Amino acid sequence: MSLLVTGSIGIDTVTTPYGVSENCLGGSAVYFSMAASFFSPVRFVGVIGSDCPFDLAEVFAGRDVDLTGLERRAHSKTFRWKGSYHDTMEQAITDNVELNVLAEQPPTVPSSYRDSKFVFLANTSPELQGKLLDQVDGPVFVAADTMNFYIHGYLTELKALLRRIDCLIINEDEARDLAGERNLIKAGDTILDMGPRVVVIKKGESGSFICGAGGERFMLPGFPAAEVVDPTGAGDSFAGGFMGYVAQCGRSDFASLKTAVVYGTVIASFTISEFSLKGLTSINRAAIDQRFETMRNLTQF
Amino acid sequence: MSLLVTGSIGIDTVTTPYGVSENCLGGSAVYFSMAASFFSPVRFVGVIGSDCPFDLAEVFAGRDVDLTGLERRAHSKTFRWKGSYHDTMEQAITDNVELNVLAEQPPTVPSSYRDSKFVFLANTSPELQGKLLDQVDGPVFVAADTMNFYIHGYLTELKALLRRIDCLIINEDEARDLAGERNLIKAGDTILDMGPRVVVIKKGESGSFICGAGGERFMLPGFPAAEVVDPTGAGDSFAGGFMGYVAQCGRSDFASLKTAVVYGTVIASFTISEFSLKGLTSINRAAIDQRFETMRNLTQF
């Protein structure tokens, strides 16, 4: 079923112990869409400037990604991010950021997207996430991401958004910050009280933990990656695999969400195995399903 | 089947954010035996001094723990450990340690224990672990623990021990140190090359990872504990549940070891829920099996 994503398109320069990837394609909507496209048609909403060297139609060629919602602004510049990872590569260090087009007026959701049933609001200001959500009529499952900046600076707006969404996908440190609670189990329950019926907490290489408003809980270890080349996009790819599977099966009961978390984990493991999008563009659904089975084998007893 | 443990008996004083537990019973052999006794008869080897205020026969009353190997030295003092946990409680800070009897001659394994089939060598010098192992005839599954102190200072002796045991149970940081490899998957493989056919890597609240010489791998998240009161003894309880189950079923094939890891995880979750041994002495096998099912429910998809 129809899956809408709103998020960023970025020109990234990323340094990791494995090398440097200069001016490569990145951004939350891009990673999300690439990951989700293995499962479901995707409707893309995002903005670039005139300087963007990437032809997204070409990037997504052969995939069911609708770019009607891609806006190119003649007098604007594309969002740029320069970051690096050191040591354990668990934390990205932002070396430079140019918001450019992201600091301007947000994009408009095309009218042809209004009937989208599944929606992912990638990380941006909660107020903007709300305005984007206003442009969709009666979605059945809405997930959003956020970050510490908004938890600390825009908590009122974030709490308003949380009352409107079904699922929050968030890092463990962000979950602790948002809940004001160090213990992740309690943090998850506290966030559920804020509105969403599902909270997905990502714990990096330690996996993920999801909890539902009916008391359901599920834990999945991270995929045991022997080589992590570039963690950029792991979270958005996870969300893409997760939401892609939910949209594909058209269900958001807890059993389906568990399977969705496994797919999200598997997809992210491909993303981090290479720089930029290479880990995702070099695979097919069969490779994903094979790793899904590996994950089952690794975790089931 | 018969399970032998060699390890310490301690008088612990532990401070955590939940309070202070002064002069309470601790030590690797004690935690291990209490945990293992839910699954299998245990043969206990350890030494105390004349100052030990605890009657171990009373402590283990009603449990099948053979104390023939408990030695009380009239002119010695019992091992004492004073430690504290702060913030995330992930790391114990040793505030004071008095080796006392642990710095003297090691205990002797009673002749009635020589036919033990399952053996756990708790953390001590690898040379001593080897000497204790010398006193057992033809065990079928031997597991050992070690720590950074021996990895850095007694690597030759440790490597000699690793060639004699079946299973190393180790923390993630220790595994990285021993293997000289940051990636845990690779670290596990490197340690397998040193001799054991199974490596169990404990990742604290993130769970555990085990790998076998036949390429088998299994990952289990930590039990989602809402309240951690005192992490002391978690590792030795984990080993006790793990080895207790292995001895109970008398098998050490990888499928059995996976189940054993789940039991180890479950047992440790009870240990950390209270100070000292209270979390273990207040439960029964039914409570353990119930939490085992909870763990299954939390992780299976």
| Number of E-type strands of chain A | 13
Order of helices and strands of chain A: EEEHEHEEEEHEHHEHHEEEHHHH
Largest interface: A-B, 29 and 29 residues
- Shape estimate of chain A: globular
Question: How far is it from the N-terminal to the C-terminal residue of chain A, by CA?
Answer: 33 Å
> What oligomeric state do these chains adopt?
homodimer
Sum this structure up briefly.
The structure is a homodimer of 301-residue chains. Chain A is of the alpha/beta class and 301 residues long. Chain A is built from eleven helices and 13 strands.
What features would you describe in this structure?
By secondary structure, the first copy, chain A, is an alpha/beta fold. Chain A is built from eleven helices and 13 strands. Chain A has a nine-stranded mixed beta sheet with strand order 5-4-1-8-9-10-11-12-13, sandwiched between helices. Chain A has a four-stranded mixed beta sheet with strand order 3-2-6-7. In chain A, strand 8, helix 3 (126-134) and strand 9 form a beta-alpha-beta unit. The longest helix of chain A has 18 residues, at 254-271. Chain A is globular and about 50 Å long. Chain A starts with a strand and ends with a helix. Chain A binds chain B through residues 88, 182-186, 203, 206-207, 209, 217-221, 224-228, 255, 258-259, 262, 296, 298-301, and chain B through 88, 182-186, 203, 206-207, 209, 217-221, 224-228, 255, 258-259, 262, 296, 298-301.
Topology:
The structure is a homodimer of 301-residue chains.
Chain A: E1 3-6, E2 10-16, E3 19-26, H1 28-36, E4 42-49, H2 56-59, E5 65-73, E6 79-85, E7 92-98, E8 118-121, H3 126-134, E9 141-145, H4 148-153, H5 155-162, E10 167-171, H6 172-179, H7 184-192, E11 198-202, E12 208-212, E13 217-220, H8 234-249, H9 254-271, H10 278-281, H11 285-299
